[in-house]
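Supplementary Data S3. Sequence and structure tokens for construct A.
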Amino acid sequence: MAMTKKQPIWWAVGALVGFSLAAGTEGSEVQPTRVLSQATAQRVKLYDFPPPNAVYQIQGTTASVTIFNGSPEPLEITLTNGLNERTILRFAPCPNCSTYAPGQGPQDCEAESVPTTYYLNPGEYESKAVFKGQTWGFRSRWVLSSGWEHKQCVFSTYGVPGGPY
């Protein structure tokens, strides 16, 4: 029996920027990993991506960031501030999530995804996100406001890379 070679599949990342605040899904709260500034040899193709939205005020002076990982792959986001200090945020994969066709995504990303919340110092950050699988990474500039909850849903799409829709 003759076997044919599989053609490579390109992966992209999709985003759902609108959020349903009524979903009420609670995620885990974890501490970010802080690392010393150092050059990295890894170069990845990153696509421009919108930052998390500030959705409501919270008590305190920190900024809260909740990422809903709707990808079947683990996600790692490195944040770099103006002092060149880096913070690494890690997000577990979503075991029941799918990879979607370009232009499509989950019906209720918050309900179908794995949420994780971090509390960070407010300020401006350059973010670089890398999935630990086949999905293409992304980058964006985050402005985290003191006393605000920021949210974003991220999921995997396949097809020609091109960032969020």
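Construct B, processed identically:
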Amino acid sequence: MVRQIVNQTGFEIHGIQLTRGLAQRLADGRWQFTCPHFCNKTMYPLVTSASPNSMWVAGNSDFFRLEGGLPTPTNRSSLSGGRLRGMKTIENQVLALQFVPPTSSQLIEIPREGPATTIQEFATPYNFMKIADGIIYLALGHLDTITVLELSLEDFSVIRKRVWDAPQISDILGINSIANRLYLAVRFMDRNSLLAMEETAVELANSVYQTTVPFDDNGTLLTIIDSRLHELNDSTLTLTPIDTPEDIIYEHFHKTPYGNFVSTARGLFRFNGHGEPMDEIFLMDELHPPLLDGLSGRELEFCETHWADLKRDWGLPEEPMVRSLPSEAQENSENESSADTHESSTVSSTLEKQSQGCSQRHSPYSWLGSMGLIGALFLRQRYRRLLQLK
């Protein structure tokens, strides 16, 4: 599944973090999987955007730049994943939370080259960071207590610090603030839970597998509990299951400046609102095998085994899918229009409306089911498009 959108330019996504590795979309349209062998075999290391087509990765012994599916070390071992606890790119500025032994932490800025700069030091060893709506949230779940510190992103001044009792707290998984109320997804020793942080920490739901913080869908709060959608009433703090297709396994919502997305067991989709069709952005079936050039010994063995396990567990095809890049799709569309100028404008209008309604510009695999509904001219145009996609 897609844990995080890392690289995005406008409405196009170029890099993602999966639960068991990383993937980047290359210039030819392929989604290139990267084996996490350089991240101490951590399935989801800390990552953030370095450029539109590359990402920073906190590796096991260095700070790497990942581009074209291949990691390049930057010779900055002090920024390895062993000490970083959070990382985020904000307008070309990379901010990170770093553990400082034995029991403290600090907020740092990571430049493109050279050592990091310390912005602020903390006596508390915070191990979770999120940046949203101009606020930096630092959190720690430890010794039966949850601590959340809020900083201003503008000048890094302290807004407030709050502490709640939370017996058997193990880890902080997510934070979101909606209508001046803070919600946390956490892991206790025996369960995962969704908490509303009032005067006390109010447990709204718990699960064996997964709870996510609420997502604001134009005033409707949605959350995912064990892969199923629920609606949260923020007045009564009650959850109501939403009837959704059993074959859709929901994982995470992703809010970006260019729209909302949701990841499922199949891939990543543009989320147009509950009940509306979702547009395909990336499917797991598009993953191409990792590049193994230069690997040997245990690293090569790990990546070969890792990829074989992924193919089995995720049911990946032998021949990965490749969808057209937006520029290619536009060029194909223009070529079709030029070749079919003698055909009626009614057919062109129908095609445009169906493309918008079924999100076919996002999904070159989804048009087969509707071929019989339109006429011979439509079939001929679709046949040409299929040949071009191949």
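The first strand starts at residue 2 and ends at 9. DSSP finds four helices and 29 strands in the chain.
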